[in-house]
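Incident review: delayed structure delivery

Summary: a single-chain prediction request sat in the queue longer than the usual turnaround. Root cause was a stuck worker, restarted by the on-call engineer. No data loss occurred. The affected request and its eventual output are reproduced below so the record is complete for anyone auditing the incident later.

Affected input:
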Amino acid sequence: MTPSKDISRLIEIMAALRDPDNGCPWDLRQTFATIAPYTIEEAYEVADAIARGDLVDLKDELGDLLLQVVYHARMAEERNAFAFADVVASITAKMIRRHPHVFGSPEQRAAGAAAGFWDRAKAAEKAEKDAGVLDDIPASLPALTRAIKLQNKAAKVGFDWPSLAPVLAKLKEELAELEGEIASAPKSGTDKARAIEEEFGDLLFVVANVARHLKIDPESALRAANEKFIRRFRYIEEQLGARGRSPAQSDLAEMDALWEAAKSEGL
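Output delivered after worker restart:
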């Protein structure tokens, strides 16, 4: 078996790995459910390479993501459900169907892309499946991303606040409810924890809605905040190291002062 730029070689490799007699024991144990987390992880690694502007890494990460598609298609083929070629046929048909201004009749191409056509095409496809407004939002998405998508879907049918002001008011309301639940008379340990978690979830959902109204990607904003935290905490470690100590040998007051110093240096 040798490397190749032909997709058929990757399909052959996957088939060999899943061969019941001579395949890889680890690959043979896998199922759709066990592979799904790797699929999500590989998509994140693609996004990370893009965020870093590393095109060499992006090439490798896209290959890893492509392998996930081939992997799932192979397992489906083993069940006589569909094969990789069917996946390709499905997405090519969808792209042609959703771009009549590119692939349609001369009249459709001349008319150009009508406003909202993509959403109407998706809605028509959903109607054929008898799906609800929110049914096509995958449960496996990161929670903040899924919240935005759920809110956007609801907004398209009119279920949305008209401006940012009432969303901010709702944010304050949810924060007050969380504070109230934390301060309320004790319930049983499990009930108390569950009630606090529910209120915290409501707060995060509204935070996502604030991001949506501000046209901010909350995942990107949080990633940036994470990186800022890492930069500033590394500064704390470096400064303490210069003093011959580690964070564990320091205290909060000293570390907080170094944190403020990091902020003042623009970290």
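Verification: The mean pLDDT is 90.
Action items: add queue-age alerting; document worker restart procedure.
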